[in-house]
Amino acid sequence: MLRIGTVILLAMSGMSAATVAGTWSGGMEQKTNDGRTGRMSMLVELKQDGDRVSGTAGPDNSNQALIQDARLDGQHLTFSVTLPPLPGSDAGPTWKFDLIVSGNRMEGRSEGTMGDRSLGITQVVLTPQK
What we know:
By secondary structure, the chain is mainly beta. The protein contains one helix and eight strands. Strand 7 and strand 8 form a beta hairpin.
């Protein structure tokens, strides 16, 4: 007789990493304290070798940075990206992404910081570019 833990382990071993290679576009959306909604476009270019993911991310083709700490566990993709500093700034924003891949959609959230300052949490939706 199989134990419950063994059944769960067997079920999980059949799970494979989602396919994320390619160019994904979409946006980040954040509600501000004064009730407005801030939006930023996102372009993510990913390369994949099994569960290993690398690539770049940023608001557009001209403003991309290497993703760091990428991890793909089944349908769960996490990574961070630090964008170049804005004019007059010492450091660029760092965004930590936590996404679920479901077919032709990646959806989740991103938490941003710039130095010691929080930029808040955004909702993220990305779809593959054709």
